[in-house]
Automatic annotation (TrEMBL):
UDP-N-acetyl-alpha-D-glucosamine binds at residues 92, 121-125, 306, 328. HAMAP family: MurA. GO terms for cellular component: cytoplasm. It comes from Facklamia hominis CCUG 36813. Phosphoenolpyruvate binds at residues 22-23. Its EC number is 2.5.1.7. This is UDP-N-acetylglucosamine 1-carboxyvinyltransferase.
């Protein structure tokens, strides 16, 4: 078992390059199986979720190669193999193989996803969409079996009862080769959805409206291989921006699309952070006397739930009282007891997180129980006086590539050790 050991309080200076988006690549990889020739994806982050999906693709007899952030996917020999258990359950996004195998083979058997525990994460909207398109869907003890009759999937109008990234993507994947026209209403608008649609359209799909709440899909018979560069990871960018505001002397974050994190930047502005925004990078100057703020997470383009946890340690430095309300995942609060153990003054009051600052964090033994809780804790560790030891590191490695190298390069005292390794 790996641990992160951080000796906090060092001044951090330099540059950090943001990688391709995790939540984009995890949709693009299942989408690539729909092509009848090789798909080349560039700017692919070297994260655990990508390796897990490569293993799953290989189990489906899809050929892959992954070198220097270029991932080649050749689905020409792919077979329709049931995946009720095993690797398929190691990450949540593997549920995109439901829409993708349904589209490619008219059938699929996919075990229900794992991923971060953020409270209940139902997939009723995905199932509703598959059924509307004409699929039969059975759920037996967490294994979803999808089939279609001889007439295949038929385009239809689907209204999403909740705005869901996953359900929107799965519906696009299922409908892209369905007969006729599909209209998705109340669709999610995330940049990752636009990225998926850009790839599919390059492959020959006919999809309009990505990035708005109405997506129109004209089904096509064939999709062909292409190459595509993945958008930068807005959550990784936001995480390092939060860190830079908390403890940076002067840090430049490169490969950022400002528009993708406008609501987050607005919140940092409100706190009094000093930033210079350029075309594709943001320079963060040292800030003292940060102001406390309150925030509510919302579907895109609102404040992202994934950035709520990374911003929380920064708020412990701010002066005054503030609240965080996560309307997407109200139970995304596992970072709070850990921050309190480090000296924060935070209370969970029903669905509201109440913070009072400023407090000085001190090093402690803490656990990253999910990916963004991990992001919160490595920022807290860098801010804290003394030594912080973080367990649950695998959760962090699921979404942050080369994290040790990136943080050491800006002056952080951070190491990854094995459990049995003795510290000096
Ligand atoms: N929901 C339903 N029914 C459904 C689907 C969703 O009620 O059928 C609800 C969820 O319970 C939640 C809300 O709708 O309250 C939004 O969930 P959504 O489906 O949008 O989330 P997701 O697709 O499962 C993706 C990201 C998450 C991110 C959320 C919200 C991926 C692989 N995951 O999850 O990312 O938090 O959107 O933006 O794209 C992360 O990167 O750390 C992460 C958890």
């Amino acid at each position: 078992m790996k641990k992160l050991v951080i000796r906090g309080g060092r001044p951090l200076t330099g540059e950090i390059n943001v990688n391709g988006a995790k939540n984009s690549i995890v949709a693009l990889m299942p989408a690539a199986i729909l092509a009848d020739s090789e798909v080349v994806l560039e700017g692919v982050p070297d994260i655990q979720d990508v390796h897990s999906l490569i293993d799953i693709l290989n189990d489906f007899k899809v050929k892959t190669s992954f070198e220097n952030n270029v991932l080649k996917i050749d689905p020409t020999q792919m077979q329709s193999i049931p995946m009720p258990t095993g690797k398929i359950q190691s990450l949540r996004a593997s549920y995109y193989f439901m829409g993708a195998t349904l589209s490619k083979f008219g059938e699929g058997v996919i075990g229900l996803p794992g991923g971060c525990f953020l409270g209940p994460r139902p997939i009723d909207q995905h199932i509703k969409a598959f059924r509307s398109l004409g699929a039969q869907v059975e759920d037996e003890y967490g294994v979803i079996t999808l089939t279609t009759g001889s007439e295949g999937l038929q385009g239809t109008r689907i209204y999403m009862d909740v705005v869901s990234v996953g359900a929107t993507i799965n519906t696009i994947l299922a409908a892209v080769k369905a007969k006729g026209k599909t209209v998705i209403e109340n669709a999610a608008k995330e940049p990752e959805i636009i990225d998926l649609v850009t790839l599919l359209n390059k492959m020959g799909a006919k999809i309009r409206g990505a990035g708005t709440s109405v997506i129109r899909i004209e089904g096509v018979d064939h999709l062909t291989g292409t190459s595509h560069t993945i958008i930068p990871d807005r959550i990784e960018a936001g995480t390092y921006l939060a860190m830079a505001v908390a403890i940076g002397q002067e840090i430049r974050i490169n490969n950022v699309i400002f528009e993708h994190i406008e609501s987050f930047i607005a919140k940092l502005d409100e706190m009094g952070a000093r930033m210079e925004i350029s075309e594709d990078s943001i320079l963060v100057h040292h800030s003292d006397d940060l102001k406390m703020v309150s925030l509510k997470t919302q579907p895109y383009p609102g404040f992202a739930t994934d950035l709520q946890q990374p911003l929380t340690p920064v708020l412990t430095k701010a002066i005054g009282k503030g609240t965080i309300t996560d309307t997407i995942y109200p139970q995304r609060i596992k970072h709070i007891p850990e921050l309190n153990r480090m000296g924060a003054n935070i209370k969970v009051d029903g669905d509201i997180i109440r913070i009072e600052g400023p407090t000085q964090l001190t090093g402690a033994q803490v656990k990253a129980s999910d990916l963004r809780a991990g992001a919160c804790l490595f920022i807290a560790g860098l801010m804290a006086q003394g030594e912080t030891v973080i367990t649950g590191v695998d959760n962090i490695l699921r979404g942050y590539s080369n994290i040790i190298e990136k943080l050491q390069a800006i002056g952080a005292d951070i190491q990854m050790i094995d459990d049995d390794q003795v510290e000096d």
